[in-house]
Design brief:
The structure holds two protein chains of two kinds.
Chain A (H helix, E strand, L loop, with lengths): L1 H20 L3 H4 L1 H11 L3 E3 H8 L3 H13 L3 E8 L2 E8 L1 H22 L1
Antiparallel strand pairs in A: 1-3, 2-3
Chain B lengths: L6 H10 L4 H18 L11 H21 L2 E2 L6 H27 L1 H21 L1 H10 L2 H19 L5 H30 L12
Classes of the chains: A alpha+beta, B mainly alpha.
Chain lengths: ~120, ~210
């Protein structure tokens, strides 16, 4: 009986470890996670809006956006509004899927650790 | 956007209405329409065109005062909005016709029609006018939008019951009162917004 319990605990621990290793590290970084979470509720936003919402520095935000763009999680496009250049950032479908998967995986890991 | 919004999404949605411009324009629209309608001005017929005039004003205010301060963000498009409006309109007409029939059956046609028009129609119009604020309240979870959504059917019910106005007069009065309140509240929010957020000097570039 005790051996069964021990085996079950080992199995659960392995499940948690497997889930943890499969966590997307691009999304897992707190600043990038915040950027994706802000963009999730919007069709698009410009650099200043993200700057205000995330409270990152300009350099930091720019660097994280480049990484997210390289991963295909955001699209960055420039457009002119009243002759003023505006950089619009949009969450892609891949970014949406990655964020959803991250929430699901982390939710199950945390549930396992708490349970 | 589904109903299971995260806290971050709610915060972002709140930021989109933080400037009070939506309240101001919605309030101005209701106030002008209510006043024109209550004085029986033929211009009231042009009330439907007011959003056409107010939309560019709202866009200009956003460009001039909001985007340089907090940046630009576009809310997701309501993909099912047109279908929803169409279904609501059809349901509203069907409900109006159905209740008119019920009133006529219960009280006789003339008496039933008069009571329906004087007491039921203002409350029903209040419910319809509450749809917009209710939609915003659901995404922002802001008390002021819930209050506004509640004030419409409440005033539409109470004004005829208290004998202050009935029928179309009650509809125009409720629009004017709530519109005036929303306009003043929106102005207050707008001033507070301007005082809270400074213009970002470096513009909108992505780190450039």
């Amino acid at each position: 009986m005790a051996q069964d319990r021990e085996a079950m605990d080992m199995g659960e621990a392995l499940d948690v470890a497997t889930t943890l290793t499969s966590i997307d590290r691009t999304v897992h970084e707190p600043a990038r996670l915040m950027i994706l979470a802000v963009l999730r509720g919007l069709e698009s936003a410009d650099f200043l809006f993200l700057l205000r919402q995330t409270e990152l520095t300009r350099g930091n935000l720019s660097s994280h956006l480049s990484k997210l763009e390289a991963a295909g999680y955001v699209e960055i496009a420039k457009e002119f509004v009243d002759k003023i250049p505006r950089t619009l950032i949009r969450l892609t479908q891949a970014g949406q899927a990655a964020l959803d998967a991250y929430r699901r995986d982390m939710g199950s890991v945390l549930a396992e650790l708490e349970g | 956007m589904d109903a299971r919004l995260t806290k971050t999404e709610v915060r972002v949605q709140r930021m989109l209405v933080r400037d009070g411009i939506t309240e101001m324009l919605f309030g101005a629209l209701l106030l002008v329409f209510g006043v024109l309608f209550s004085i029986g001005s033929p211009l009231a017929a042009f009330g439907a065109l007011l959003p056409v005039a107010l939309n560019p004003l709202g866009s200009w205010l956003k460009r001039r005062f909001v985007y340089p301060r907090i940046g630009y963000a576009r809310a997701p498009k309501g993909e099912r909005a047109i279908r929803g409006i169409l279904i609501t309109a059809i349901a509203a007409v069907a409900l109006l016709a159905g209740t008119l029939g019920l009133f006529a059956l219960a009280l006789g046609f003339e008496e039933g029609r008069l009571l329906w028009l004087s007491h039921f129609v203002p409350a029903f119009a209040g419910l319809l006018m509450a749809i917009g604020p209710w939609t915003i309240a659901r995404t922002t979870r802001l008390v002021r939008w819930y209050v506004m959504a509640g004030l419409f059917p409440l005033s539409g019910t109470l004004l005829p019951l208290l004998g202050m106005a009935t029928g179309y007069a009650a509809i125009s009065l409720e629009a004017a009162i709530i519109g005036g309140l929303a306009l003043v509240y929106g102005l207050g929010l707008f001033v507070s917004f301007l005082r809270t957020y400074a213009v970002e000097e470096a513009g909108h570039g992505a780190g450039s």
